[in-house]
Specification:
about 20% strand, 3 helices, about 50% helix
Amino acid sequence: MLVTFKSRASPDVLMLADLANYLLGIVGKRLGSRGVIARNELPDAIGRMEDAIAEDQRMSDAHDEMHYGTPTGVHERSAGLAQRAYPFLDMLREAQKQDTDIIWGL
């Protein structure tokens, strides 16, 4: 199932429901058939998302250091939270700049 995030501040962001549920959980929301991140909730949502991305990067670096002896290992990394969350985080930031809400629907 696909979830579409919409805002007047940026193009629509479309993602699978599993990823949408995970990202919404990070920002303190639940995935329902419809929902909204109000403009006054955006600063907290952005902070939570940035913290989660930084923590994911720290965990990935620690894993690489443990297994490969260097935090930037010579192996190919799978897509991390930063890559998966960037379109949504960009939408959050743009919505905050333009003082508008983000809505979603299934």
